[in-house]
Each structure stands twice: as structure tokens, then as C-alpha cells.
Amino acid sequence: MGIAGVWAGIVTILVFFLSLLTWGSTISGWVYARLLGIAGMRILGIRVEVAGLENLPTEASVLLVNHQSNLDAYFLGAVYPRKTVILAKRQMLKVPLFGIILLAARTILVDREDTASAKKALKDSTRAIKEDRNNLWIFPEGTRSRGRGLGEFKKGAFVMAIAAQAPIVSIVNQPIEHLVDPQAKFLKSGVHHVTVLPPIPTAGLKLRDADALALQVRQSFEQEIAKFPSN
User: Fold this and answer.
1) What are the structural domain ranges in the chain?
2) CA geometry: angle at 109 spanning 108 and 110, to 5°?
3) Tens of pLDDT, residues 116-128
4) What's the pTM?
């Protein structure tokens, strides 16, 4: 875990300077993901096997990913597409250097306790997809599950997808217990599985359909997680 932290620090410093040179572009976010996910996995001795790469979007889409820990950035770097912006908590701006990277990469920031902030995030996400043709990356649980299984999917992600009439692409991240010993804070080498599911269209759906869509997508995550090897 210590090695993972050191590498994340190195990548953050490198991408911080890149973000200053490419301010307003999504390239710094993509480079960050690639450096963590590809180089980082080699350093840590973990091989990520991705199924369904053909399902990665060819049009601006909403990408939904189950969120387990800070290590997700390593496991998911290989599937993070170009022209992608992230929906993140505004509190992330407080993280040194990383907060600047988020701003530079056009991250959509939201304070879920603030109604005005949530409305602005909805407007910004619709523009990012429909006008800028960017993908929108969202952790629909809203926070890390920390090994407690799949959390509740918040309605906001589905409202955003419907508002933009954008397809939903689910990226299912294998539970990390086979690689992480949280008590010893030790990260083992091994194979980690990620599955990209076929896109779900939202064309023609109304905002009133968001709850049913959230249930449908969450069930697809549960079914796919059950297929992963347990060790």
C-alpha cells in the first residue's frame, strides 16, 4: 500500500504540471488515469483483465462505476476513455495539487447538501455531454463502499443521463478483497477483473423513469459481480 501511495504522489506531481499547460482540456485526467492504471499496476504486480472493451462508448455517454477504495483509480485506468469528465464531490478540491488537477480537467463538482449546487451540476453535465461531446464518469454510490458490498445507487446519476439522453455504460469493478488486506494495509499481487457492460439507451426516457433505471442498472451490477472469481 505504501508503494501505491508513493506512485500516486509521483503521478500527481507530474500531472499537476501537465494540467497547468493543458488547462481546460480533459487530457490531464486521461493521462493521470493511464499512469496510475497501466504503469502503476505493473509496479504493484497486478494484472487487470478487462472483458467487454468493445462496449466502451463511441458516443458521449454516462459511465457508471462501482466505487470501493482509492485504489479504484489504479484498477480502472485502463478503461478510462479520452474526452471524459468526472463528477466529484466539491470537498476533493481541498486535496493538495489533486484539487488543481480536477479543476484543470473540467471536473464537474457538486455539493450534494446544496440544492443550488446539485442543479448546477445537472446543467453542467448536460452541457458536457450534449455540447462538448464528453463522457461523464460517475460513481453512482456517491462514496466508497470500503468492502461493504455494493452500496445504494443515488438517483442523480440517472437523472443526468436522462436529461442528456445519453447512453449508460456500466463498468463493473471486481470486489478487491482478493488483493487487499485492510487490517495489515497490505496489497497483494494477482489478477483483477473489470467488465464493461453493453450500453443502455436512455433516448425517450423521462425524469420520472430515473428510479426504475437506477434499479435496473444496480441489478446488472449485482449479477455481474456474482460472476467474478472469489479469489
Assistant:
1) 2-225
2) 125
3) 888 899 999 999 9
4) 0.92
